[in-house]
Design brief:
- Helix content is about 35%, strand content about 20%.
- With about 250 residues, it is α/β, with parallel strands linked by helices.
- The chain has a single domain, classed as Rossmann fold, CATH 3.40.50.1360.
- The strands form three sheets. Strands 3-12-11-8-4-5-7 form a seven-stranded parallel beta sheet.
- Strand 1 and strand 2 form a beta hairpin.
- Helix 1 packs across helix 2.
- The N terminus is likely disordered.
- Bound molecules: 2-amino-2-deoxy-6-O-phosphono-alpha-D-glucopyranose.
- The site of 2-amino-2-deoxy-6-O-phosphono-alpha-D-glucopyranose has 13 residues, from loops.
């Protein structure tokens, strides 16, 4: 795609509705797992991805595929909450997809919710991904402000896994739901933007009118750390999967 002087290497797929969105994404994940049975697949949590994860499990019941050597990697995690909290990324991925696919704990790589040494935990996490040959496929959600994982605007493009601030609306919701007192800091631990760019294939998924402006900036706005997702334009194999509403401003 080309606009003005700028080349955009992203492949953009727009589908008619939410069902097509979930099914298309689910088949991308299954296609990867079938093509390479020891694939390493990175997944994101949130409203965008829940149903596509459940769709993967649903399809696997009808049309089973081998998941015994598959590794699932969580892109990010909430810090200072119990792992069993329903909004923790570990529990979300576990209930949405990894349990349903029979993925063992050993093949389910997550950053911890609690640690006395997060920099060390981050290094161990990226080392574990590298030891398995890196991510074959990474599915990323998109923030309305352009965030990827917990990498908020202003995060350096060359960041590696780290502990970041959470955006205020999510911070308040999680604090309320977990009844975490004000004196305990809530943040997010996340793969860095550089780690994400090292995945061999990326699919950015976004649905709904509230994501349309962020999608537009990602595709056509300045290549800038102020809109972290714009870095995906530099990735050699990045697909953007959108419903019509998220694609409305392209
Ligand atoms: C959250 C998560 C991200 C996710 C994004 C989109 O903050 N940390 O991993 O991709 O926001 O969430 P949603 O799909 O609910 O809009």
């Amino acid at each position: 795609m080309r606009r003005g002087n700028e080349h955009v290497a992203m492949k953009i797929t727009t589908v008619v509705d939410e069902q097509a969105f979930d099914a298309t994404a689910a088949w991308r994940i299954i296609g990867q797992a079938v093509a390479k049975r020891d694939s390493v697949i990175g997944l994101s949590t949130g409203r965008t991805t829940g149903n596509m994860h459940r769709k993967v499990v649903e399809i696997s019941k009808v049309s089973p595929f081998d998941t015994s050597a598959l590794t699932i990697v969580g892109v990010d995690e909430v810090v200072n909450v119990p792992r069993e909290y329903a909004g923790a990324c570990y529990t979300m991925l576990k209930t949405e997809i990894t349990d349903g696919l029979g993925i063992s704990e050993e093949n389910f790589l997550m950053l911890p919710t609690k640690s006395s040494d997060f920099p060390k935990a981050c290094r161990e996490f990226t080392d574990a991904i590298a030891a398995r040959g890196g991510m074959d496929l990474l599915i990323l959600g998109l923030g309305e402000n352009g965030h990827l994982g917990f990498n908020q605007p202003g995060t350096p493009f060359d960041s590696t896994a780290w502990v970041s601030e959470m955006y205020p609306e999510l911070e308040q919701r999680i604090r309320r739901e977990t009844q975490t007192p004000e004196d305990i800091w809530l943040g997010g631990v996340t793969l860095g933007l550089k780690d994400m760019m090292h995945a061999r294939r990326i699919i950015l998924v976004a649905k709904g009118r509230n994501k349309a402006e962020s999608v537009r900036k990602m595709v056509y706005g300045p290549l800038s750390e102020e809109h972290p997702a714009s870095i995906l334009r530099l990735h050699p194999d990045c697909e953007v999967l959108l419903d019509r509403e998220a694609a409305a401003l392209l």
